[in-house]
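Board notes (copied after class):
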Amino acid sequence: MDLTHRQFKDMQTLIRFLKQERAQVASFADFRARLRNYGYCIRCDEGEHFVHALPTLQKVCPVPQDLFG
């Protein structure tokens, strides 16, 4: 399934997707690898972590803090 951030109707849908994907793996590193398969990456920018769309690195949204655990 090839998802892009344009396919999400609103930010809540994207956040729900991120939480579902994070629940599938044990570590944050595995979560980051999983997001790359969907065309996203997580980067630290100005002290905060953001989800970016690949390959343009367009900033999509901040990473919710509860996903780091």
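Comment from the instructor: The CA atoms of residues 22 and 30 lie 9 Å apart. The radius of gyration is 11 Å.
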